[in-house]
Amino acid sequence: MPSICLYFQVHQPMRIKKYRVFDIGYDHDYFNDQGSTNLNNRNVLDKVANKAYIPANDLLLSLLKKHKDFKISFSFSGIFLEQLKKYKPALLKSFKDLVKTGRVEILSETYYHSLSFFYSRSEFESQVELHKKMILDLFGKKPVVFRNTELAYNNDLAYWADQKGYKAILAEGWDTILGWRSPNFVYEPNIGKSKRGKKRIKLLMKNYKMSDDIAFRFSEKRWKEWPLTADKFTSWINQINGNGEVVNLFMDYETFGEHQWKEHGIFDFLEVLPGKILENKDNNFVTPSEAVDKYESRDTIDAPYIVTWADSERDLSAWMGNNIQKSALKNIYLLEKRVKEAGSKKLLEDWRRLQISDHFYYMCTKWFSDGDVHKYFNPYESPYDAFISYMNVLNDFKIRLSAKSGMRVQNKLEFKAKNQINGDHGFSASPR
Amino acid sequence: MKVFMVGWELPPLNSGGLGEACYGLAKALSKKGVMINFILPYDFNIKSDFMNILYAGGKVNSKKILGPYLSYSQWLKAAKLGSVNFVDYLSQVLDYAENIKELARRENADIIHMHDWLTYPAGISAQEILKCPLVAHVHATEFDRTGGRFLNEGVYDIEKTGFEKSDRILPVGGIVKRTITERYGIDQSKIKVIYNGVEDSSKPRIDPALLNFKKLGYKLVLFLGRITMQKGPDYFVKAAAIVARYYPKAVFVVTGSGDMLVQMIREATDLGIIDKFIFTGFLRGNEKDSIYQAADVYVMPSISEPFGITALEAVKNRTPVIVSKQSGVSEVLRSALKVDFWDTEELANKILGILKYKSLPKDLKRESVREIVNLTWDRSADEVIKVYQQLIY
User: Fold this and answer.
1) N- or C-end of chain B: fewer Cβ atoms within 10 A?
2) Do residue B334 and residue A369 have CB atoms under 8 angstroms apart?
């Protein structure tokens, strides 16, 4: 004891290109920016792959080979894997190689990295199913642990995941829901008593202090613990021995090489960390499903409201905090019924791509007006520019949708009319 | 701390932003305990309860005074038309330098603070007597006034000398700072940008204008400023033509006067949208505020705008703004939409965004109002006092 549970989130959105009002009705390719800015999805993927994913995968593979007890887990957004399939097959293969070691667990999430759970349950479930199918196709795995976009979590989500048969769900170990309790134990969500004999879903809470020591503070020279070494980090882990069972280190995979740079030693740190941790025979690594198999729940955690892993607020205000975000979200989800009735694969796909949570994040103004732009990354000139492009795209999408549903209504009428004629004809042609 | 502030004009006898900026800054400085002798070239009979106003010259008809924004070619035109006296373009400026000497001998000061080229010869001649540090405030350069064409060499030389003799230069934005280093060859170590501010960020309580239009569902797009090349009125008309095609209920309000008014009308006529234009002429005070409040969006497409205080005035009146990236205000006001002045399509795209998507003006308003609470003359005065202190101690 304790067990270390590592989970890395891997996601790249499909950013909407600069889309002006004049493009409405003419240009239906929303995600194909070809320029040199960070709106060019292929460029960004290339950049991040070279800086982060490729070297990190190589390193993790060698670590898995070296340490037989080393384990990790990933959650990939479907939209990320889709881009890999198209542009980076070699990188996709290296992720597959990692999974093939048998010591890499893949988690379940929404295909489109969306916040659909809070807007449409049926759409949310479709996206989770799509994601499952993709994971099965690409990796031959069936995920048994769920994590929602931005780790957005509440009791309702836990209840849903329990009903769907998941073994575990992840959440931020935020003080307001943990209270005096430590994140370093397995818990269960507050979703009522279990039916006789049936095992309930368990809850793994992120140790945000130790996770963020790596993910956010690693290169921060003003941090009193800088520079962070594997020895130092391991000594903190060793101190937990006896008063914790599992340390959940959850972070973006881009931490390695993109958020924290190679030049600042993040790969050197990662390279020696597993060995250092395993030096102490009391320590070991687990995947999320192993963690909940190994440890009993110690208490019930109540989360009546949404908790996320974002910002100091740990809420969804960075996605739905202002008027432009709310109006964009409202307008996209308002179209669900029409999109599904239209029966067009392409329209359904575009509609879903427009739900990627990053679109709304780019419209966040809460730090922008304070001039604190360093806190977040935005490929648009301003949150307002992000919103204008999004809404223009949405208007083009609506025109396509109307054209399609208009056609369907017309087809239906024609079909009906034809049948009637046929019917009449048939009737009169065979008088008995 | 005693400041000998050399100005050219003050409200209500001002032709534009120069007088208002001097007034706003001087008031904020005096509130912070700076004693100000504000010098004007002639006796305009202006009263102030917070500073001492002194006149270098005697009484004169204010219509005969050189406007601070008149470029040499505009002045030539005006002189030919007989609306200004055909005296030498620079004579009033040089008279000022002569007349100020008497005041300089009588008064004492810790700092001399000048405002634009019209005051530099006067400031320099006062400094020869008072022998204290010299500060040049730059609200605009000859490059801004002329757009870089038909520069008056005499003016340029006065500016250059003023910059060279000054211990510190205070441009109102990064664009002017760049001009001073690149075009006048001044070392940037003695330049410090001091952004303009608003006096009070609360919304003026008045009834917005043009309510009948609004009741009929029209949306108002406002241009407000001198109608001169520097302000980009022609780009406004070009963008308006595009907006009108996509948003038939848009009306374009033009407030101000200037030598490009006729050209503006002609262009709107040629583009077939003159029926969508309203020209209000020059407005000030409550009338100006009420037109800001009526507008759904304020557009400032300036080709070159040292600061652009009108953008802050619009925010104060709770109107969302679009400013050109070639303006000083675009460097400090984050919650505004920004475009390159020449990109009329993008300007139209952004105007349409504000007119079509209701949540956008809502957030722009809320966020920009939050910002101007900190963009006050108080803040500018604090920065100026820091500069004074560096020079004195």
Assistant:
1) C
2) yes
